[in-house]
Amino acid sequence: MNFNLLFFIRLFLRHIALLIAVPIILAVLVFYFTKGQPQKFTSKTKIYTGIASGSSIEVLENQRFDFFATNTAFDNLINIVKARNTIENVGLELFTQHMLLEIPDSKIISPQKYQSLMEIVPDSIKKLVVKGDYQKTLTNFRMAKESGHQNFVYKLINLKHADYSAEKILSKITVRRISNSDLVEISYESDDAGICQNTLLILSNVFVRLYAEMKVNQSDAVVKYFNEQLALSNKRLTEAEDELLDFNRSNNIINYYEQTKHIASQKEHFEMEYQGVQMRHEATKSVSQILESKMSSRQKLRVASEGVLEARNKISAVNIKIAMKSLNLGLDSVATVVAGKELAELQLEAERLNNDLRQAMDTLYWVDNDIDGLSTNSILEDWLKNIIEYEGTKAQLLVLEQKRIEFRELYTLFAPLGATMKRLERKIDVAEKEYLSLLHSLALAKLKQQNIELTSNLKMIDIPYFPIMPEASKRKILVAIAGIMGFVLVAFFILLLEFLDVNIKNARGVEDKIGLKVAGIFPRIETSNKKVDNDYIIDKATDAIVRHVVFSNEFTGNESNNPALNIFISTQKEEGKSFLCTLVSDRLIPLDYKVLLLSNSENLEVKSPEVDVVHYSITEKFYRVTSLEELVPELSTEKLAAYNFIFLEVPDLLNHAFPVKLFNKSEHIYLVTRANRPWSAADKNVIKTFTSIVKGPEPAIILNGVELQEMETIIGDLPRKRSMFRRILKNIIRLRFYSKNKVAS
Predict the structure, then answer these.
(1) What torsion, rounded to 10 degrees, do the Cα atoms 617, 622, 627, 631 define?
(2) At CA 603, angle to CA 601 and CA 606, rounded to 5?
(3) 165: Cβ contacts below 8 Å, ≥ 6 apart
(4) Buried residues in 665-692 as b, exposed as e (16+ CB within 10 A)
(5) Does the pLDDT of residue 312 top 50, yes or no?
(6) What residues form DSSP beta bridges with 647?
(7) Spatial distance between the Cα atoms of 369 and 367, rounded to a whole number of angstroms
(8) Residues 529-551, mean pLDDT to the nearest whole number
């Protein structure tokens, strides 16, 4: 079988009635069931999103366009449109709009739709309508919906109502991004023009509102979080600063680092001053001792008199006060001013006491010269000066010793305060950095919030229009699709059944399935097809089989008395052995051959009276027959020698035993089988057994009942009446563009 275009055309032509009838039936059914379909109205709106190229208050360096993020944002936006919450709100608001109408308005809902709605709405729901108050009515319906799963409003939104159910509304919504722009197109389809426009308008408003709320709520949550954290951070910073303030107040610290620096400087200055005073004190002390050593005992006694000692004590006390005031032990600026005034008064008093001491010394009587020839007045004068300075340095040393103790105590106090001060300052620094970081994050969050509010402000570019003309009916398209699908399905099943067909069908199939050579094929006669010359085809097919019989047998004439024995077998009943035997026998007679036909069939008919037909019986000993004389006793060897061909028809092999020894004596064995049946496992097994037992010639197959087209492999083009157009078309299909019917002779 050649799977060319001609093969498929012939295959479809055999089932042309089915290929025509089924598409017509399907088209008629679709045409009938689509009769009276409601008209469809469509409205569209366009919304500007600004996602891809919209303005933003964020200033970012090296800002790049992120296609993935943009596509994700559009996907999120489209999913929000199709979200069940969005669609339920649309259905509920549309129902509220219709229930607020007292009379139907074609711009909102058609009279037929309005009447149908009023018939199904119960009175308990109608009582929830607040005339003229859309928002209150919507709130009442929403509360009714949320009150349970069995109320009318909940069922209306969640079941199958064509105009209000979420499922139906969603099935009629189409959302798409327009190319790579910032625009999103939303379309809606309905059988009512008013409902179509208003549903789309409500959907756009609900979607824009929900989208803005979602985006703003997200940013509000972030801003709220940072506000709360900033307040906590500010509280911690304030507590840390208050702790440092209390620490400074309790320790009298104005500026710790400046104070410690000032104390260190004062300590260094103090030590230098202390050393200078101590040196002067020791010097005056030594000079005084030397001068006293030069005095007479009488002079020493007078110097140590009560008046002089009293004056010295007073001078010493005043010098101590002067030293204390001069060193400013309190380190207080206000006290320093007061101490300056007191210091001036003390210095005047010290000068007075010094004068009193001199007067006391002048009243004494001294000798003019000492033992060394020095003037007594000169020694006393020097001694007096040293005593005055000595008393001054002595007082200063006493005060400086107190000052040294105070410095030591001050160092003991300030040393641990430094570590505590560092810890408190570090605590404040950490709290301050945390506060500043949260403040910066809050500023960014507020900036993001403002940006989100700007970008989430979707704009409706095209308001949904009121559709005047309905959409073109798809009825014709559906009918055409039904017809095409009917044809395609039938053609598909024809091809499927053809390729899944396990029948033998043709010579190539029988050779592949049985493994034996084909001696000839015989067509299945179609008497209803008047365009084909059946007699011609039968003659040609019979001639082909006869030629094979004649040429394949080793023919021996009457002179040798050795006729050619040809046995016709089949694996099953009614394969056409008898019919083919009679045809071959009749055709050999005109060729001057003598033919003997042996058959067990009683109703065997031959056209030529010259064919000798002998009937034999099948007995239990049939398989033991070794010769024709044993099979038919009335036939002698002399009678058999008179024939050129002897044809023996035996019963089917599956149900009868066969004479093996007789088969071994045959010239040729022909296996007759029908083309319109499968070659079963039983057929394979019996032929396998037959070929393994019979040692005679290998059987050749005669395929009976093939399709007429298969006969072209033997006789060429089938003899039928063809128009010129059909002949040309057939040659084109077979790619035979230059074939001719005849050539010049």
Answers:
(1) -20
(2) 100
(3) 91, 156, 157, 158, 159
(4) ebbbbbbbbbbeeebeeebeebbeebee
(5) yes
(6) 566, 597
(7) 6
(8) 81
User: What are the residues facing 174 on neighbouring strands?
Assistant: 187
Q: Residue 111: left if φ>0, alpha if ψ -120 to 50, beta else—which one?
A: alpha
554: left (phi over 0), alpha (psi -120 to 50) or beta: beta
Instruction: Look at the chain and count its residues.
Output: 745
Structure tokens at 44: 């569209």
What pLDDT shows up at residue 676? 84
- Which segments within 101-182 are labelled E, that is strand? 173-177
| Alpha-carbon span 508 to 504, nearest angstrom | 8
Residue 455: per-residue pLDDT:
60
Q: What is the dihedral of CA 231, 233, 238, 240, to 10 degrees?
A: 160
pLDDT at 252 over 90: no
Can you read off the two tokens belonging to residue 185? 């197109």
Whether residue 158 contacts residue 168, with contact meaning beta carbons closer than 8 Å, is answered with: no
The single-letter DSSP state of residue 467 is -
Q: What is the CA radius of gyration of the chain?
A: 67
Q: What string of DSSP letters covers 412-445?
A: HHHHHHHHHHHHHHHHHHHHHHHHHHHHHHHHHH
**SS3 state at 701:** strand
Tell me the β-bridge partners of 613: 597
pLDDT in tens, 324-372: 666 654 445 555 666 666 767 666 766 776 666 666 656 554 444 444 4
Distance of CA 504 to the CA centre of its chain: 53
pLDDT given for residue 130 in this prediction? 92
Q: Classify strands 183-190 and 173-177 as parallel, antiparallel or unpaired.
A: antiparallel
Q: Which amino acid appears at position 338 of this protein?
A: V
In terms of Cα–Cα distance, which of 119, 77, 125, 75 is closest to 100? 125
Question: Do the beta carbons of residue 92 and residue 156 sit within 8 Å?
Answer: no
pLDDT in tens, 497-527: 877 766 777 777 778 788 888 888 888 877 6
Can you give 499-551 as a three-state secondary structure string? HHCCECCCHHHHHHHHCCCEEEEEECCCCCCCCECHHHHHHHHHHHHHHHHHH
The amino acid that residue 629 corresponds to is E
- Alpha carbons 726 and 222: distance in angstroms, whole number: 83
Spell 551-577 as b/e; 16+ CB within 10 A means b.
Answer: ebbeeeeeeeeebbbbbbbbbbeebbb
pTM for the full model?
Answer: 0.49
Query: Would you state the pLDDT for residue 225?
Result: 85
Residue 409 and residue 646: Cα distance in Å, rounded?
153
End-to-end Cα distance, the chain:
34
Q: What is the DSSP letter of 644?
A: S
pLDDT in tens, 168-214: 999 999 999 988 888 899 999 998 999 999 999 999 988 888 887 77
Instruction: For residues 595-623, give the mean pLDDT.
Output: 85
Contact 175, 80 (CB under 8 A): no
C-beta separation of 671 from 520 below 8 A = no
At 453, list the tokens: 């509010």
| Cα–Cα distance for residue pair 615/599, rounded to 1 Å | 5
Cα dihedral 449→454→457→461 (10° resolution):
-160
| Sign, Cα dihedral of 484, 487, 493, 496 | negative
* Neighbour tally for 353: CB within 10 Å: 22
Secondary structure class of 596 (helix, strand, coil): strand
